[in-house]
Design brief:
The protein has 9 helices and 10 strands. It has 274 residues and is α/β, with parallel strands linked by helices. The protein binds zinc ion.
Amino acid sequence: MIRFGVAGIPLSCKWRSLKEGVTFVKQLNLDAMEIRMFKDLGLEEEDLKEVGETAHFHGVQLSAHTPSYIDFSDDERDTSIEKVINCGEAASMLGADVLVTHGGFYSLDGSLDNTTESIREIRSYFSENNMDVRLGIETMGRPDVVGSLEDVIQICKKVKGTIPVLDFAHIHARTNGSLQTVEDFEKVFKAVSSLRLKEYYIHFSGVYFDESGERYHLPIKRDTPKFECLAQVLLKHEYNARIICESPVLEHDAQYMKIILDRVKEKAYAKAEK
Ligand SMILES: [Zn+2]
């Protein structure tokens, strides 16, 4: 099954509350929403549970995303851990199954140690408090932060209850535009195959990048990278995936990706009929 969703409340949703946003996602015929916890949601437990119930009723799968600035190095470590745990508590009340976060910076020796240990500490807290939320570790678009595909795989191998968040725009930007063909996309799935994921959690959009990596996100139609290649891989291998659109034209592009996926299906069907 391939599900499509949006990062945050749809732009065309006049009502800016999460509850209305979830209902709007359903009306757009999408199936998922990644709630951005970049600022305090300002909601009590009761409200969060109500949003979760609305999502459940409409069949909209909720996930969440912590604030972007995360730093697990010495000075900021405790604050960052606390930030992620607070988001985890809210995510748990919402019934979100994944909390996406960033890996922060490399340790002084250039290793992943600070990040891995901090993620382990956070996940232990989740387990001890019966919070059924997996931590999604995102691939990042700039080489100076933790989040190459290899980094993410290493962390997920070492810490139980974590999954990779395959942000293809970020992978493309960080590797100087390496995602050009269907085979290039297949390599990404091959790299994470040892994690035996039942569903791939994906971020997708176009991306503008330069030698220092990701600069900003672009609409899907810019084909950097090409969604059609990803669609072909997903269909060919019958992968289950949740694709969260992060394009500047949010829901418009989530629906556009659905259309591209359908076109790829049609083409494959027409070919088989010949
Ligand atoms: Zn992110």
